[in-house]
Write a structure and sequence with these properties.
Elements: H1 2-11, E1 17-21, H2 25-34, H3 41-52, E2 61-66, H4 68-71, H5 81-87, E3 91-95, E4 100-102, E5 110-112, H6 118-127, E6 132-139, H7 148-167, E7 171-178, H8 186-206, E8 215-218, H9 233-247, E9 254-257, H10 264-275, E10 285-289, H11 291-301, H12 308-325, H13 333-339
Parallel strand pairs: 1-2, 1-10, 2-3, 3-6, 6-7, 7-8, 8-9, 9-10
Antiparallel strand pairs: 4-5
Helix pairs in contact: 7-8, 8-9, 9-10, 10-11, 10-12, 11-12, 12-13
Length: 340
């Protein structure tokens, strides 16, 4: 249990956050399609090698979430990725869910699968070097949804997963993502996010999950992408923090936000505004970004080995900006200063 506490605290250490590089095969194919690179085992390995071996990445990234394939791969120098991360002072994590599938009687809603055989997979992942895990649930806002049935099913699965992780000595990251793709207002996002989190923590309590050894990964409270009324950085920060205060126990080790498709600089600004507030929050507020950290590096890389140094510089710059945002010390001027 002391190992779990130390790992959880290290993942949300001041000035650091988590880089998610756990895209499934279909998701990484979409990313590669955007830069006209064919997704193969070797191109995926080469791209993740770029991310993992970025010089100085441990200064602002505490952990990386890997995909099953990636955890079994090695750097170009033949060093297993988990060891390369450890050598860089970065904790290895693993995505363990097996994707969101349609719910049969609940049209437009998803349930995440992967509980069958999870205990055995967790044992294997720990032996391969993982020290924390992640499970994502998808909550969709729409006409009449989410339903109570969807919220209950996903909260139950997240809690069962979290209990199994702690049993096997891995810190669980629980990720109930309320999607921001619809035309809903920020007020509707608040309502759904609060209901989702309340249901989640009730289930975690019933499964006797130790909250001090758990990290919440959640969406920001934000208007849907198609909503004509978009809100300011300050309002997103205020609504997000208020929602957390209403629904997340203070015992939780830390909260990391997902970017949810936000542009890189906007995701950084939102996180910074939360940490720049006058009040001291009961939990560290950090980041667990995928696209918002990776996209600049991905576009620069373009599948060409000669572009690796420039791509790594872009990744380090983005991570460092977010590291300052966890302290409430990020400013837009840093975008130019750090990139120089």
């Amino acid at each position: 249990m002391s190992d779990l506490r130390q790992t959880a605290e290290a993942l949300v250490a001041p000035g650091k956050g988590i880089l998610a590089i756990d895209e499934s095969f279909p998701s990484i194919k979409k990313r590669f399609d955007s830069i006209h690179v064919v997704s193969t085992e070797e191109t995926r390995r080469a791209y993740r090698d770029l991310l993992i071996t970025t010089q100085g990445i441990g200064e602002c990234v505490s952990g990386m979430i890997l995909f099953d394939e990636t955890l079994r791969q090695s750097t170009a120098a033949g060093i297993p990725f988990a060891k390369a991360l450890s050598d860089a002072g970065v904790i290895t994590g693993i995505k363990v869910d097996q994707g969101a599938k349609d719910m049969f009687f609940l049209a437009g809603e998803k349930i995440t699968e992967g509980l069958d055989g999870l205990r055995e997979r967790l044992i294997e992942y720990r032996n391969l070097g993982a020290r924390f895990a992640k499970w994502r649930a998808v909550i969709t806002i729409g006409n009449g949804i989410p339903t109570r049935g969807c919220l209950n099913a996903n909260a139950s699965a997240l809690a069962r997963y979290a209990a199994l992780c702690q049993e096997q000595g891995l810190v669980p990251i629980v990720e109930p993502e309320v999607l921001m793709d619809a035309d809903n207002s920020i007020e509707r996002c608040y309502e759904v996010t609060e209901a989702t989190l309340r249901r989640l923590f009730q289930n975690l309590y019933e499964q006797r999950v130790v909250l001090e050894h758990l990290i919440l990964k959640t969406n920001m409270v934000i208007a849907g992408k198609q909503c004509p009324q978009q809100t300011s950085v300050e309002e997103v920060a205020e609504m997000s923090v208020r929602c957390l205060y209403q629904s997340v126990p203070a015992a939780v080790a830390g909260i990391v936000f997902l970017s949810g498709g936000q542009k890189a600089e906007l995701a950084t600004a939102h996180l910074n505004a939360m940490n720049a507030m006058a009040m001291k929050h009961p939990w560290p507020l950090s980041f667990s970004y995928g696209r918002a950290l990776q996209d600049p590096a991905l576009k620069i890389w373009g599948g060409k080995p000669d572009n690796v140094p420039a791509a790594q510089k872009a990744l380090h710059h983005r991570a460092k900006c977010n590291g300052f945002a966890t302290l409430g010390k990020y400013t837009p001027a840093m975008e130019q200063q750090l990139a120089a």
